[in-house]
Write a structure and sequence with these properties.
This protein is mainly α. It folds into 2 domains: 1-125, Tetratricopeptide repeat domain (Serine Threonine Protein Phosphatase 5, Tetratricopeptide repeat, Alpha Horseshoe), CATH 1.25.40.10; 190-343, Tetratricopeptide repeat domain (Serine Threonine Protein Phosphatase 5, Tetratricopeptide repeat, Alpha Horseshoe), CATH 1.25.40.10. It is built from 18 helices and no strands.
């Protein structure tokens, strides 16, 4: 999953004077009610309020924009696209409207439409790093691995802090995403086999990926290659093998967050829910400020919260699970939406 960035527009509250409000004033008041309902995650009332705002002001760009975003949160992606279409018709130069519509199209698996919208957002603002990252995620899922790497490199060149999220999209190692360097193969054979394994993972050819990782490890073992081989083993159902590889990654670097998160996945699949919770918690608690620590991408953090929540449900820890599902949703994992509704009473 990739984080899908959803940013609501905010509009100043208009004070009614002289006891009578014109249509634009009424529209503004309903708009602000919608923003308040969004803050409470009451999407049904937020949608109703934005629609009332549009009734009073049919050219209210911010109302159409927020309505589109809220429909995404409510999982009505087709309606979201319809309202974002109207927002774009009103302000065709607004990069955020194209960006948000691109994310909505991604959710209905309209990959070509999604990429086209991200390209329009980038044409308006060539430094729009989030658009490059979302486009990369779409390209990866659409089978364009090289395009995904190229767009991640551009996002990193705009802001090196995007390196961890880019690594989460492409499966590349954090060590190779230094400022100005982008994502590239290191000059030794171990890294070349590691890169080859990552490309096989992106193609979902896990046995071939494992074979490439084996060659890398034979030359020079390092935490990322053990972790990624463990993750590939998880995808083949070899969960005990996944744990063994993660143990080796953690032994090399005890602050390697991904090792704990991937081992948590292995334990979850083995129904060791207590052990999974412990590993997810350790991985989530590792701070990038710690010496030798890595910074997991937002998409990986969201997945860790989601599966820690599912582990807690299995152990009847529903209150704690609610917190995890809410965090996963906040980080952009919309799989958590129904779970949050079910367990957050």
């Amino acid at each position: 999953m990739n984080n899908i960035l959803l940013c609501l527009s905010f509009f100043a509250v208009v004070v009614i004077t002289a006891g009578c409000a014109d249509n634009k004033t009424r529209a503004s008041l309903y708009f602000n009610k919608g923003v308040d309902y969004n803050a409470e995650k009451n999407y049904k009332e937020a949608i109703a309020s934005y629609k009332k705002a549009i009734d009073y002001d049919p050219d209210f760009f911010d109302a159409y924009f927020n309505l589109g975003i809220t429909e995404v949160l409510a999982r009505d992606y087709s309606s979201a696209i319809t309202y974002l279409d109207k927002a774009i018709a009103l302000k065709p130069g607004n990069k955020n409207a194209y960006f948000s519509r691109g994310n909505a199209k991604y959710l209905i698996k309209d990959m070509s439409g999604s990429i086209a919208d991200f390209n329009k957002a980038i044409a308006i603002d060539p430094k729009f790093a989030d658009a490059y990252l979302s486009k990369a995620r779409t390209e990866k899922d659409n089978g364009d691995s090289l395009g995904a790497v190229a767009d991640c490199n551009t996002a990193i060149s705009i802001d090196p802090n995007n390196a961890a999220e880019a690594a989460g999209i492409t499966g590349q190692p954090k060590q190779m995403t230094t400022p100005g360097a982008g994502i590239k193969a290191a000059p030794d054979e171990a890294d070349q086999y590691y890169e080859e394994g990552n490309m096989k993972v992106m193609d979902k050819d896990y046995p071939a990926a494992i074979a490439s990782y084996n060659k890398a490890i034979a030359i020079r073992p390092f935490p990322d290659v053990y972790n990624n081989r463990g993750d590939a083993k998880n995808h083949t159902g070899d969960y005990k093998g996944g744990i063994a590889d993660c143990n080796k990654a953690i032994a090399i670097n005890p602050k390697f967050a991904y090792g704990y998160l991937t081992r948590g996945d292995s334990k979850y699949n083995l129904k060791d829910y207590k052990g999974a919770i412990e590993d997810y918690t350790t991985g989530l608690n590792i701070s990038p400020a710690d010496a030798g620590a890595d910074a997991p991408a937002k998409i990986d953090l969201a997945e860790a919260y989601l599966y820690r929540g599912l582990s807690r449900v299995k152990l009847n820890q529903n209150d704690s699970a609610c917190h995890d599902f809410s965090k996963a949703l906040e980080l952009g994992d919309h799989q958590a939406y129904d779970l949050a509704l079910k367990y957050c009473k």
